[in-house]
User: Fold this.
Amino acid sequence: MKKILLYTLAFAVIFNFSACKNEEDDIFDDSAANRITKAINQYKERFASSPGGWTMEYYPTNGLEYPTGSGYLLLADIKKDGTVRFAINNDATGYEYYEDTSLWEMIRDTGPVISFSTYNEVLHMFSDPAIYDTGNGLEGDYEFVVIDLPEDGNTAMIKGKKRGVYVRMTKLPAGTDYRAYLEDVNEKQAELFSATAPNKLLMTLGEDSMYVEQMSTMIPNIYPVSGDAIANESYHPCILLNVDGKYVLRFRAEVEIDGVETTEQEFIWNPELRMFVGVNDETCTLQGENPVDFFKKALEGGSRAWQWDMKSNMSAPVSAILDNINNQFIAVNKNYSLSYIQLKFKSGQCQMVLGYKTSKTATTKVAYNFDYSSNADGVALSYTGPETTAGENILKRVTAIQDMINVLNGSLTVKASDAPLDYTNLKLIPSAKADDWFDVTYK
Assistant:
């Protein structure tokens, strides 16, 4: 009897367990389906609720080569009526503004997916095989799995359904003029990251320093200062955008460098500090390399010069000196005029090289020598005399040249000019008389 009772109890337990398990499976399946449906409806509402639409930090692929590895800033005005207006103005369009309107929808896949399935001339240029000569276009996506879209958040994270590339979207304020927004970002990018800048940039990640080259391509090569640009090359695509009036530089992924512990993905431009500062870690920065070091390196190399002329940016006293030099040349000969002045290295000495026109097509040079030394703030010059008799004779007749020699004679502090990341122009400030400052151009 006891055995029968035990078997009966065992069977009942097994039966009840099985019944509970089936019931839980049914509830789970229904719940999962309901959750996806609910998420689709919520996301549809949230995507269409941004007052001014969204920025899209769009990367076609996870590659590192132009153009498929480049980042492209798109603007998307997603409407509740199922339409979406995309806008673009960057390298993909030759820096011409384009916009197009098409349809969008939220669809069910393994999770909620936002689909831009009807052709849009802006978005679909990245997936249209006819656009680029690889047969795959730029290999981009037009359907994206929704990874994160909080109700009260300012950003959304989506991921390309085919390529798996993450795309961040950020809300835009109501009334945003898409054409003006993109033109502003382009102008700021050209200002900060000039393709003609002669200097490298310097990135700090915690206690480590990295050189940054080719920043104007927005796929910069970042490598340790102690390393080599080729042996230690490391490319990192990025996009510049404007978020609430602040310029944000965001890389496709965190900047990770071999042997460096600290990483950072997003930097905000600080106009007071004249550098980008990390969002998550303020010890991470991006700025121009030390202007003093760059000035001395360029000067002491001997093949380049630092030049200024009457059109350069300078203080009123220095401008008056150059005007006097020019007028005195004209007084000597009406065909003469000041062309330029340079600081250049020759045979271990620093020279002030003065070029003056003797006709519309001919220019003559004379030089004045200085002993040279460097310090933490810049350089120190000590005048020793004209290089040649010709220079001595010119100095006797154009006596205002001596005034420029006097400005240079002493310590000169080197500062970055109005373009803090581009050292094509640097500012020289005499320590003895700070009012006699002037900009010099890398030649």
